[in-house]
Amino acid sequence: MKPLRKILDRVAPNFEEGGKWEKLYPLYEAGDTFLYTPGEVAKTNSHVRDAIDLKRMMSMVIVALLPAIYMALYNTGYQANLNIPSGTIPDGWRADLMQMLGLGFNAGSWLDCIAYGALHFLPVYIVTMSVGGAWEALFSIVRKHEINEGFLVTGMLFPLTLPPTIPLWQVAIGISFGVVIGKEIFGGTGRNFLNPALTARAFLYFAYPAQISGDTVWTAVDGYSQATPLGAAAAGGMDSVYASGVTLGDAFLGTIQGSMGETSALACLIGAAILIITGIGSWRIMVSVVMGALAFSSVLFLIGSESNPMFQMNPIWHLAVGGFAFGTVYMATDPVSASMTERGKWFYGFLIGAMTILIRVVNPAFPEGIMLAILFGNVFAPLIDYFVIQANIKRRLARNAA
């Protein structure tokens, strides 16, 4: 690695103040600190000392996302190969590339599923990183500050929330909206009050609903149509879910219809364990989201309804289907847009869990309720923290007065 270090040191003066590429310093700094620990560290006691910096923390989140990424590759290919008519070869460059590599479309072949899924996931990921990264670099150059590592996580979360059939130009527009409107206009990383990846997805959800919801977008096979378990439950109750052949075990493992990285509750549980053990993700938020969902779904399940089939879905199914697990583990715990106070995290998480079920059940037109619920929680997080801090101040004043 020493030759690379020497090259970076040799070109550094060109990017520093007075250098001919001075305006591009954020790009140099991003590459340098991605590869090496910064040589300049704080020497006073005015900063919090920790063994991990922001860049390494974001890298650990990416590690926690690996199980979901694996399922995005495997299940996307598996669902497609499972439903490609026997003896036929799909049209398009992906099928041509598969044949060039000597691969087929066998749902029973792990390699066929992973490869075909990757050919759908990677273009979405590359567009997200290219377009979103360009916006990040542009704002950093104009503002003359460093490129923040938070986009590495946003750029991974956003593709995982999308269906495999999403047009790439919509991916570009969506991530542009999320980065610019959801983050940069508020000052960038650390100053945004909405989760940028969810803001991008919400924009696509309302701007282009035909390409991000419905029955035809979840499987990368032309002309194939099948509802997600949530969509089936909203249309005909649990009888429709069972009739589609989906079991609770399928929903837990993630071999069902859905957004590329959101189908597996098991993968999200593994990611949650990594985030909690490393101290990066808040277990209080995860637990309180589940508590809120269990409490509210239990009440609605016991009440029942003759006109709304979503009331038939019991609390366990609610936890296993849709993007609930993914949103709980990776989105609700976003340290920037979530509540900061320890007590506030309980209220924040419970609010998201309850709102998720309320949106799913009472308004089944939006079966994927956790996306809107987390954005709703993001808006209320500052208010929750305010009341928690004020209550703490009053309690201390009362204690001292006594």
From TrEMBL:
Keywords: Cell inner membrane, Cell membrane, Flavoprotein, FMN, Ion transport, Membrane, NAD, Oxidoreductase, Phosphoprotein, Sodium, Sodium transport, Translocase, Transmembrane, Transmembrane helix, Transport, Ubiquinone. It is found in: Cell membrane. Belongs to the NqrB/RnfD family. Composed of six subunits; NqrA, NqrB, NqrC, NqrD, NqrE and NqrF. Its cofactor is FMN. GO terms for molecular function: FMN binding; oxidoreductase activity, acting on NAD(P)H, quinone or similar compound as acceptor. Signal peptide: none annotated. Its EC number is 7.2.1.1. The modification FMN phosphoryl threonine is found at T228. NQR complex catalyzes the reduction of ubiquinone-1 to ubiquinol by two successive reactions, coupled with the transport of Na(+) ions from the cytoplasm to the periplasm. NqrA to NqrE are probably involved in the second step, the conversion of ubisemiquinone to ubiquinol. It comes from the Bacteria. This is Na(+)-translocating NADH-quinone reductase subunit B. Its main location: membrane. GO terms for biological process: respiratory electron transport chain; sodium ion transport; transmembrane transport. GO terms for cellular component: plasma membrane. It is a multi-pass membrane protein. The chain crosses the membrane at residues 57-77, 122-142, 162-181, 263-280, 285-304, 316-333, 345-363, 369-389. It is an enzyme of class 7 (translocase). It catalyses: a ubiquinone + n Na(+)(in) + NADH + H(+) = a ubiquinol + n Na(+)(out) + NAD(+).
